């Protein structure tokens, strides 16, 4: 149950609402292994270190050239931390983190806490990132996010009793004095000035103000300005600055009301509070809220709404809240309203699930709890392969799981292997259906399966430890997903095996490091793990999606699994990758046997007449034919273009070969193996399509 490795990029100086949001959620879950990149030193970076997180502190810059320098340093830090996913908080963090993470092929999720820098820049960051999190629903207005969710700040636990909270803060007012609280950074846009001016109004004469928060380096003189303002207005003795108050939610009960008065300014007309964590903390503690939009919508009947930059309205609200009955009514409404928001543990679970899905590790760090699974496998004359599969898989079955083995009429000892396993473990069931091919066998097994969560793998595959647990976590944490595409590692030792693995199959090792070139290569040329194009070696799906897709296509002997996945997605169902559902798979023992298998794969594509499946094979035929003609008859520039295209085409397989064992001998075989693989597969596709179109089977 490996935790999700996360690197968070965020402002490291002032500990504001956005920084508290992340800390509260990270503290509420044990599913994360966190490293931090702080943009500037200060309170947030110190909090990270206090939690034992490794922290890299980089400068907090503003200009584009300096941000580019910081991005390069972020790239270097990410190389060292090697996370599963990067979490960038705010626009500046996303600007430096997204390019660096993209260059390294690491998924990146952008968290947006306010409406700064709207328009094209926001659209660009949405396109650059693999997922988006907004701390309030209004931050999604006008955006076309990909894999975006809204995650409000969490509801924290109940506060201390009133007297204990006041003792902790050192607040003991005179009889009849009412106390207004604010927890905020000390900057102009937070509306502290409006609260001070409200105290000077005659109708608010019973109220005092206590401000919990640190000075902001961006406005170092604001604290002093507010103190002078209070003195000028004659309310200095009724205004206190408490400094930093950790865990404000624990002491919010010290106040008779809490104000969130965030306001726009001429230079920041877009500015408003994204959600208002302080408001939710007050509501949870039964304290009425005075709030400007849109936080008034969060508070509902638990507070009073006031326009921004309107001290008179704040004073009027304070006067109304002098009534004990009205305060009590608002307190009860606020408590009820707060219960509609998730507690910290629930919110943290949603966040980690979102990050883990973006990283291709759904449910990472969560116990393998979830639905019982029916594992279906088909087999024909492969007693050794079935033995290896049973040995690796049966120990992974849960008490309510089952494994359905469908034999297509084996004449060797395969059925005996299956029956011995069923005799030893009642969770194993055996069905013998002579003549049943792979698709027919899978459909039969699923018909007989007891559960709605289905997993498939093949004899000849050996599931890694945790294969079934990875699928179970995925089913459990994401019931909205209908197709889970697992991964497979191709076993190889001889140079030709290594070359064929590099040329013909995707690489698990590239999944967490999908650089832009590798992404582009995989998208247009295949040989990457595509959630919508699973293989029967490692796949999970729901019964409803299997039925909606029309079951596995029984007219295909090969390629049936990929076409099945395509039909699920085309039917409007969601497909996702689960990297941890890994099996190992051995290639055929000879090169000729592998080429025959590849030709049959091509025939499957041809018989399917699926445009995407056939398109790549036909494109390769055209490329080989056209490239040969151009190389033979073209001029130097044309020949150079053909050579460059060939090098680009072979670059990823060659790089894989050079990273593996016996690199020189393997890389030398890549061109020939690639040509043989492409041509036999294309031949199978073309001939099968011709037979299908001609009405012959």
UniProtKB/TrEMBL annotation:
Keyword Hydrolase: no
Record-annotated Glycosyltransferase subfamily 4-like N-terminal domain positions: 16-117
A Pfam family of this chain: Glyco_transf_4
Domain named Glycosyl transferase family: residues: 175-335
Keyword field contains Metal-binding: no
Keywords, comma-separated and alphabetical: Glycosyltransferase, Transferase
Domain Glycosyltransferase 2-like: 374-490
Gene3D superfamilies attached to this UniProt entry: Glycogen Phosphorylase B, Spore Coat Polysaccharide Biosynthesis Protein SpsA, Chain A
Protein name: Glycosyltransferase
